Amino acid sequence: MHPSVRSTTFTAVRLVTLTTLSWFTAQAPASAASPAPERPVEDTIVVRKQVTHKKYRVNLYPNASHEQLFFHAAGREGKVYHLYLFDVEGKLVRQALVTNEQTTVLRSLEKGNYSYEVFSNDERISNGQLIKK
User: Fold this and answer.
1) Could you tell me if 124 and 51 are in contact, meaning their C-beta atoms sit under 8 angstroms apart?
2) What are phi and psi of 21, to 5 degrees?
3) What are the record keywords, sorted (predicted)?
4) Are the CB atoms for 89 and 99 separated by under 8 Å?
5) What is the set of domains in the chain, with CATH numbers?
6) What is the pTM for the complete model shown?
7) Rounded CA gap, 119 and 102, in Å?
């Protein structure tokens, strides 16, 4: 690498969750001294993301009903990315070619733990974990 050229790489872990109104239903108002226990939504998708490339800002997030997973990436319009989804044993479960503004990536995902990787031009730009409850 040329001495005047600097490369910046960072790693960050971010937990993306979606809260719906059903999270708070069936609970009486709580006082500040004794808050009501939280009740999770029955079917949820949790995304734990590890960002590995600063140039790309990749986001995976569920819709309100937790039935679909959406994909968004900053960059040139129409850019194509490769998304790979693996089960806990490392077996490839699904793969998809997605554009940076594509919404629906996965439908009817079985409950379980998954890991994902996103590639652009044969370079891994994002990876993380999905949990479908």
Assistant:
1) no
2) -60, -30
3) Signal
4) no
5) 13-25+38-132 (2.60.40.3080)
6) 0.57
7) 15
